[in-house]
Amino acid sequence: MTYSDILYRVVDGVAVVTLNRPDRLNAWRAEMERDVRAAMRAAADDDAVRVIVLTGAGRGFCAGADMGLLQTTVDAGQAGSTPAAAARAPAPFDDAARDDFKRQYSYFPAVPKPIIAAINGACAGLGMVLSLYADIRFAADTAVFTTAFSRRGLIAEHGVSWLLPRIVGMANAADLLFSARKLGAAEALAMGLVNRVIPLTEFEAEVMAYAAMLATEVSPRSLREMKREIWNAQFQGLGEAIDAANADMRQSFSSADFKEGVAHFVEKRSPAFTGG
User: Fold this and answer.
1) In angstroms, rounded to a whole number, what is the distance separating the alpha carbons of residues 165 and 28?
2) Longest distance between any two alpha carbons in the chain, whole Å
């Protein structure tokens, strides 16, 4: 597929999706939304891909919605209508996924491979929402975050009111949403918003090293099943999560990756997991 707003490459089992409007700090628009979804589908369907990295070109990760798009929304609101692009809901990424994971931006949990948000710079508004739907977030030490919505007269968009308190706690979520203040990478780490902060000069290498470790040293079946379990557990009680895990465990015992996991440990060699 030809992409207009992203770059897509696969390196040693890692699909790298790069938002590619660096002159606009990778501001989000309809073409980028289409490209990212298509790239996630390509990565999900490619057996050679085991991990996905989402990052941005240039100085920004994603500065939020393109201001031209916001102005179109203002104009449409004044005319008493909604832009057609905003009115159309995309088809579910995975028909078998929970209904919660079939919405416009909430499909990342339905992608059956880990998604690492590599936040290399400005991360604002819709860009921050996208990062929250990723499974893991690494930030360059130059990254800056803001929810932005309250300063545009908007609300906590696209499920961020559900996501953010689970990641940073209720009080921190309220602070970040109400104030829309900017916070740097160090504060984001202390708050639990990101998993790790890495010097910008080492950022790409460190992110890719971690992604390569996941792609080569652990079972892709385990990654797939654990991701599904983690996200589904957000809607379960403890007993339900235990029962679901017990059922999954029984299936794991008969899997090829379980047999390989035991064999490579006993034989003291590198693993050769297949995902089966």
Assistant:
1) 24
2) 70
Dihedral pair phi/psi, residue 6, rounded to 5°: -135, 165
Q: What whole-number distance in Å separates Cα of residue 217 and Cα of residue 32?
A: 32
For 262, phi then psi, to 5°, come to: -75, -45
What is the mean pLDDT, run by run of 10 residues, along the chain of 276 residues?
A: 93 97 94 96 96 97 80 50 52 87 93 98 95 98 93 87 96 95 97 97 97 95 93 92 89 83 86 84
Choosing among 3.40.1110.10, 3.20.20.10, 3.90.226.10, 3.20.20.140, the CATH entry for 6-215 is: 3.90.226.10
Q: Are 122 and 57 in contact (CB under 8 A)?
A: no
SS3 274: coil
Enumerate the domain spans of the chain.
6-215, 219-266
Residue in the block written with tokens 């606009």: 24
SS3 185: helix
Pick from 63, 58, 183: nearest CA to 125? 63
